[in-house]
Amino acid sequence: MAFIPPTSSPERQGPLRPSWFRLLPSLRGYRSAWLKSDVSAGLAIAAVGIPSAIAYPAIAGLPAETGIYASIGSVIGYALLGPSRRLIVGPDAATMAVLAGVLATILQQMPGLSPADLVGAASLLSLGVGLICFAASAFRLGNIASLLSRPILAGFFIGVAISIMVGQIGRVTGLKIEAEGLIGPLVELARNASDIHWPSLVLALAMFAILQLVRIRPVGIPGPVIVVVLGAALSAIFNFEARGIRVVGNLPTGLPSPGLPRIAGLPLTQLFLGSAAIFVVSFGAGIITARSFAARTGEDVDPNAELRGFGAANIVSSLLGGFAVTSSDSRTAVNLSVGGRTQLAGLTAAVVLALAVAFFAQYLRILPIPALGAILIAAALSVIDLDGLREIWRISRVEFGFALIAMAGAISFGVLQGVVVAIIATFVYVIFKETQPRVALLGQMPGRGGFYKLHRSLEVQPIPGLLICFVQGNMLFFNADHVDEQLRGVIAGHAPKTRWLVIDASAITQIDSTAVEMLENLRRDLEGLGIRMGLSEVQSNVSALLERSGFNAAIGREMIFDDLDDALRAFQAAPPGTLQEDTRPSRT
Q1: Which residues cross the membrane (predicted)?
Q2: How far apart are CA 499 and CA 580, in angstroms?
Q3: Is the pLDDT reported for residue 577 higher than 70?
Q4: Which residues fall within 8 angstroms of residue 7, CB to CB, at 6 or more apart?
């Protein structure tokens, strides 16, 4: 989210055009009166962040401390280069699910990796994501956030959420689930139902119920915070570990020394492809979060500037032994609700998390794993946007179908392969839309100026002898036949009284040689019928290509009009039956 430093109204932030390495942009114009709000917000962010920081790494099979390192490093990195004052970055369920898929693929290729090597691989992937972010920003590819459309992202996230929930079966039941995918773990659960550790399951269900109750009836304290505090207290009182309920275990009591992650033998191709997959999902989801909160704060989102912020967040997370991150909706929401003004709130949260690791690790180690599983299941459920799906169904059945394809891809083929399915589905959807541009016939309304689509109103009447066809899209090799078929259908329905066919090209921003050949064939056929072809409102780049191809000369430059009014005047002035002479009325 880009902004300008506050002037007379600090609440409304406009776009700032930062240089590439403008450090701490959100602290420019800082006011001492904001310090109390930022510190308070930082404390709240840390309180909310600790549960997810400890729980989310489990999705990818990483130790709990990596989530804390990622939470600390990411906010420091984003504060250094991130453009938004209030957006908070950190671990994200969807990003973790894709990371889990990438790490699973790496483990298949390198089965001898130790847990420490797996942490190194996750940090390398985070470094790769950060470098891709900077490269994309350098080439101003911020619009790559639109690579996955909202309907496809909605479907994909539902698939991710289901995968995350299935992945928690072992944590909430105490079973050792070895199967992967969707059906395998459920079958294994049914087969080993007699071995379920019921105290673990009861604890998980109780904690999940608390999370849902707090969601329905807020009490001023976030549900995950209540679950973590209550779970730790119960674990200390009843000694859960001795009763067979798994706990987090020992955590490091300090932060790692900053440094580049190293892991011998990791294939560079797999590293790049994995980083790219994580980048697509994390940035796509992150920019949606950024835009949704920007609507509340009055900030403007600059995707290229956000790329630099996300890039710095991922790189610093990597240097501290963390994993890939993106914007966090829960932490950002807490920041806004408490009144955080700048990234100093995030930096405060980082300090608090570092102190928690240094002085309270012994209390965090007794956190029960079933409680963390309940937090992850609740987080996964929050990702499922059924209202959004219903809205997509109401607006477009086709887009709803592509949302289901993306959801099925994530569930059936795994999250990592689901990213590929989602991207392919996006391109198929784009091609589907682009291959069928509509051709509308335009006419006029009695007593009113301008031109209107005939199918919109019975009052719109065609102009006798003049067909004006509005091509609603580009004309390229994959849709040239479709446009040709529609144009010929319009002509067949209005022959033999038609003398001119004028194509309104105002919506055509791209054309290629295949489409030009189609137009030339159509022009020849029309000439045989005594019908002249003309063009109106041709874009400059389209006109340049038509000029180079010789098409402009073929139809006659007098048949290329600035607008439809110009075309109508020329048609009305043309004697019936003329094909060659310039009948354009004088403008003088």
Answers
A1: 39-60, 66-81, 93-112, 118-139, 151-170, 196-214, 221-240, 260-288, 344-363, 369-389, 401-432
A2: 13
A3: no
A4: none
CATH 3.30.750.24 positions along the chain are 439-573
All residues at 6 or more sequence positions from 34 whose CB lies less than 8 Å from its CB, including other chains: 341, 342, 344
Amino acid of residue 140: R
- Biggest distance spanned by C-alpha atoms of the chain: 100
Residues 6+ apart with CB under 8 A from 1: 13, 83, 84, 85, 86, 87, 290, 293, 294, 297, 299, 300, 301, 302, 305, 306
Using the CB atoms, write b or e for 569-583: b if 16+ within 10 Å. Answer: ebbeebeeeeeeeeb
CB atoms within 10 A of CB 136: 22
Kindly compute the dihedral angle of the four CA atoms of residues 237, 242, 244, 248, in this order, to the nearest 10 degrees. Answer: 70
List the structure tokens of 489: 């259908």
**pLDDT value for 217:** 92
Q: Which uninterrupted H or E stretch holds 170?
A: helix 169-173
pLDDT in tens, 190-220: 999 999 999 999 999 999 999 999 999 988 8
Instruction: Name the amino acid, one letter, at 96.
Output: M
Which of 140, 133, 414, 404 minimizes the C-alpha distance to 283?
Answer: 133
Greater confidence (260 vs 168) lies with 168
Cα angle 528, 532, 536 (rounded to 5 degrees) comes to 145
Model confidence over 184-194: pLDDT tens digits?
899 999 999 99
Rounded CA gap, 218 and 222, in Å? 8
Q: Which residue type, as a one-letter code, is found at position 78?
A: Y
CA distance 385 to 387: 5
